[in-house]
Amino acid sequence: xxxxxLLGFALGALRGHRLRTALSVTGVAIGITAVLxxxxxxxxxxxxxxxxxxxxxxxxxxxxxxxxxxxxxxxxGGVTHDLTLEDHSALARLGRLARTAPIAVATxxxxxxxxxxxxxxxxxxxxxxxxxxxxxxxxxFLPSGDPDRSGTEIVLGAKVARELFRGEHPLGQVxxxxxxxxxxxxxxxxxxxxxxxxxxxxAAFIPVRTAMRLFNRTSLFRIVAEVRIFAEMDQAxxxxxxxxxxxxxxxxxTVYTQDAMLASFSAILRALTLSLAGIASVSLVxxxxxxxxxxxxxxxERRAEIGLLKALGAPAxxxxxxxxxxxxxxxxxxxxxxxxAGAAGxxxxxxxxxxxxxxxxxxxxxxxxxxxxxxxxxxxxWPARRATQLDPVAALARR
Amino acid sequence: xxxxxGVWRTYPVGEGVVHALRDVSLAIAPGExxxxxxxxxxxxSTLLHILGCLDRPSQGRYCLEGRDxxxxxxxxxSQLRRTRIGFVFQFFHLLARLTAQGNVELPMLFAGVPRExxxxxxxxxxxxxxLLPRAGHRPDQLSGGERQRVAIARAVVMNPAMVLADExxxxxxxxxxxxxxxxxxxxxxxxLTLVVVTHDPVLAARxxxxxxxxxxMLADAPAGEA
Lengths: 399, 226
Prior knowledge:
The structure holds 2 protein chains of 2 kinds. Chain A is α+β, with helices and mostly antiparallel strands. Chain A has 12 helices and 10 strands. Chain A folds into 2 domains: 3-53 and 263-397, no CATH class; 81-251, no CATH class. In chain A, strand 2 (97-112) and strand 3 (115-124) form a beta hairpin. Chain B contains 7 helices and 10 strands.
């Protein structure tokens, strides 16, 4: 029996029961749509975070004081040198680094008139603006110049400025942090939530030297550096390590790159997407049971037809194939409808929320198609076997 | 070509056993026209199913064209039905969703006959029952007599050695019954072995040989003069 003949016979049988066919196709379609929609959301979340990292600059090298890894031999905990502004100046001269910025951080209460607000204050330099791609709503960022200079400028995050000044124009105003007084030179544009757990809208920025004196720190919290050429990330990281090892006479800093963090975040979110897909595929199993039910009803209802086919000498394997083909066609039609509905739904979501990068990953399409096929075969086998095991005499006895 | 020797067919029913056929021995030669006659429950349908390889004797031997059907596998018996035996049923058993042409093509479809050949042979078979002009009609657009003639075309389209008809006119008016029997008898005259199950004595009288069944047993010896 040629494949096309088999297909034709199965299609003819399905056309005979339009409502039932439509219902089971709908069941599979809903399952496939659910798989696609949930994976698209998961994938969207992953891309959103990847994009978020990219706006922070994915070509960053970050230096922390202290060695995080433990290596064999000497136990960790020996002398740790401070990460100093001098270290930063030395790093800034490295050829592979385009920009560098030191960071000192502490939480202080900022006061304006009788209002106070506890915010994280970052001491840094002008280059930080470029490295973190900060945009200003008002004024300018910290003035460039010698990082050693103790200025009294302050730049406020959008939310800090809004809550501290309550509609008053902040530029040129004086705010107090502990004993020190700062003049507001700029306000950042609102940035929305940042995925790094650090909301820049709620922070304030002052010159690094001033910050270290104010916070009474001898060591920097971080040095961030932007690598000139992305492909030279690893060499740049090695350069930084080598320079600091030479300056400290010990390997007592940790250097990591933004893209390494990005990779691990991405992996975590991909696992999340996979588990969402797994949850969604439960609905496919339900759809499969639906197909099985439809096929069982069909086999019972078409006893006379099966009896006839047997009396006509149709070989059992071909009868099995004919009924299996019906189940697979149901699943395949459902799969196709589900793909269309899923794509349309995701398209609609992308249209309504253009800033959320939803997308159906290619592997999900492949998995959905494979799953619907497996559902058809898996849940079609049993009814089809029952069809071939029917006793033709009994099947023909009734009208 | 057909040889039954001491065939029994029993069904377990509850605690007991029902004997549908008791010690039936029967020989049918190629080209014969045999009527199986008897009251309801006499076992004539069971006998027909055994002849048609749809059922197997519980005891005894059934040889079709020299092959002992009882020893054949399901696939081999299926092949016998496909190539050597045609069935005609009281209730036609046409598939409602297929046209007359499609119904006649059905045995060839499952036998793997190529499409073009199927079309040609189905048309030929429909022509032989005088229904070629109705080839595109579905069963619900045909009269009872026409439906049965489509079923006959389907039964002979694989060129079988014999046709087994179970009450072929049981559901037809007298005129249609005449038509249908006319078609079957014409095929019988061309060498097709014909076995007709009926409880209509008028119909049975048209056969060259009548076999009476009663209570699962052959009631009398083959009547040569009938």
